Amino acid sequence: QGQVVESGGGLVQPGGSLRLSCIGSGLPDEYAMGWFRQAPGKEREGIACVSWRGTNTYYGDSVSGRFTISQDNAEVARVLYLQMSSLKPEDTAMYYCAAKLSAADRCPARADLYNIWGRGTQVTVSS
Fold first, then answer.
1. Long-range contacts of range 1-5, CB-CB < 8 Å, 24 or more positions apart?
2. Which of 11, 57, 120, 126 falls 20 to 30 Å from 40 in CA-CA distance?
3. DSSP code at position 59
4. What is the chain's pLDDT, residue by residue, as a tens digit (127 residues)?
């Protein structure tokens, strides 16, 4: 079973931008990957995902138009990115990268369907 490791979180001012990265190692080709976030006292929210071929993506309503998911399928590892723009204080949360087998070239938005998770990277949007 593979693993995923996130990086790139930090403190950013409202209206600013940040790019998160996730390195997936030991993942077979047919793995969908996604970004999720969880703020204190709230449920984990699916915000973006991409199918293993990159042909299908999903964005949650709260981030659509501001966040962009992309991936780089290198030979040794997959790298998943989340470019975040026009950040708002309500985007403050722990951000997680996750992966799941999805040979159908789709990516589900539900967190409970993913079985490989990283430890998360904190994003704080504050002035």
1. 1/26, 1/116, 2/26, 2/27, 2/28, 2/31, 2/99, 2/116, 3/116, 3/118, 4/33, 4/80, 4/97, 4/98, 4/99, 4/116, 4/117, 4/118, 5/97, 5/118, 5/119
2. 57
3. E
4. 799 999 999 999 999 999 999 999 988 888 999 999 999 999 999 999 999 888 999 999 999 999 999 998 777 788 999 999 999 999 999 999 999 988 888 899 999 999 999 999 999 999 9
